[in-house]
Hints:
- The chain is 43% helix and 26% strand.
- It is of the alpha+beta class.
- The radius of gyration is 18 Å and the shape is globular.
- Residues 15-116 form the Cyclic nucleotide-binding domain.
Amino acid sequence: MISPELLEKYSAVMKSFGKNDIIFEEGNLPTHYYQVISGEVKMSNYNDDGREFIQGIFYKEQSFGEPPLFLNQKYPANAIAVDESEIFLLSKSNFMKLLEENPKVSIKIIENLAQRLYYKSVMAAEMSTQEPEHRVLKLIDHGIAYFNFKKDSNGYLINFTRQQIGDLTGLRVETVIRTIKALEKKGVLKIINRKVYR
Length: 198
């Protein structure tokens, strides 16, 4: 997203987070721009039944949590390190200065936010009207395009767990497992050593 050199020029600091560490909490006001150096981060919250709903998953060179930063609104979800992660933190004032002084970076940030908004609107329609197979494939295809999943002789390795697929599509894990098996029988997906390929 934003080059490390440019982030460091504007005084970004690198911070390490352990697995399951909270990066920021739902309800807090934003103070920083966050960009993943390594690891994996999820933004999620819980419904009244205690079920987790994942708003998004973020990998190397992806940023997260910007909308509240621009709006000066409280975070609508928690950001949690899924694995050990290193993240750039850039103060809000320095981030705004960086955008003002680097219009090409501003355009990239706008494109990134537009991509996320587009994905959310597509998935909202999917979750309200489509069958599980359609939902799972839509998410997987979005992951291939947006998360740069690795491709080998088996196809694209889908780097989501069954739980994450469920949390991102509003399906139960059991439904996700059945759906993936059904899609494998149809030849749409492959399961090799418990890993899913498209």
